[in-house]
């Protein structure tokens, strides 16, 4: 939770960023004390949830600390640079969250019922080519494919179920379909 010790403190942002670039943790603390409340306000206006806004501000300060050496005073003020980081982090969070497909409890129960995707494969006959080809796939790739096509679940739901990033699920499904196509040919 954000609780700066002194709000409204005035600082030389460029000098404080130079201090951060040289590893001076006190410089980051001064920036935090002076700007965290305003940064939280900017993040709140974008993400509309305090917990997410706090996460945005935290991530922004980590990035400010790590990338302070990239700040160029010739391109603008230090304060503008830092607030651009907050804004971009908030927009990225919104964009990432919009890609997640939220599910209701009934859908999650349905996922639990299909939980053992190997049961679905066992229902195929022993000699069926599809079964043979599916069994050649690595277990997580096979699971993502079966959940998508036999279970009818979205990539986002599968990512949540398997605990992997959305991009990983998409790649697994795409590559698994290519492998199945080759195997079945």
TrEMBL record:
InterPro entries: RNA_pol_sigma-70-like (IPR039425), RNA_pol_sigma-70_dom (IPR014284), RNA_pol_sigma70_r2 (IPR007627), RNA_pol_sigma70_r4_t2 (IPR013249), RNA_pol_sigma_r2 (IPR013325), RNA_pol_sigma_r3/r4-like (IPR013324), WH-like_DNA-bd_sf (IPR036388). It comes from the Bacteria. Residues 31-99 form the RNA polymerase sigma-70 region domain. Keywords: Sigma factor, Transcription, Transcription regulation. Residues 128-178 form the RNA polymerase sigma factor 70 region 4 type domain. Belongs to the sigma-70 factor family. ECF subfamily. PANTHER family: RNA POLYMERASE ECF-TYPE SIGMA FACTO, RNA POLYMERASE SIGMA FACTOR SIGZ. This is Sigma-70 family RNA polymerase sigma factor. It comes from Terrihabitans rhizophilus.
């Amino acid at each position: 939770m954000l609780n700066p010790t002194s709000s409204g403190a005035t600082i030389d942002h460029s000098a404080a960023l130079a201090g951060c670039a040289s590893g001076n943790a006190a410089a980051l603390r001064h920036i935090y004390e002076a700007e965290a409340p305003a940064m939280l306000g900017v993040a709140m206006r974008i993400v509309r949830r305090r917990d997410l806004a706090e996460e945005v501000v935290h991530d922004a300060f980590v990035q400010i600390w790590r990338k302070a050496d990239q700040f160029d005073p010739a391109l603008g003020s230090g304060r503008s640079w830092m607030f651009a980081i907050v804004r971009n982090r908030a927009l990225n969070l919104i964009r990432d969250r919009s890609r997640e497909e939220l599910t209701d409890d009934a859908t999650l129960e349905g996922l639990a019922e299909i939980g053992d995707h190997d049961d679905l494969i066992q229902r195929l006959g022993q000699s069926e080519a599809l079964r043979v080809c599916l069994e050649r796939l690595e277990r997580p790739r096979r699971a993502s494919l079966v959940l998508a096509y036999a279970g009818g679940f979205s990539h986002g739901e599968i990512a949540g179920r398997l605990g992997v990033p959305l991009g990983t699920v998409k790649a697994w499904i795409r590559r698994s379909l290519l492998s199945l196509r080759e195997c079945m040919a």
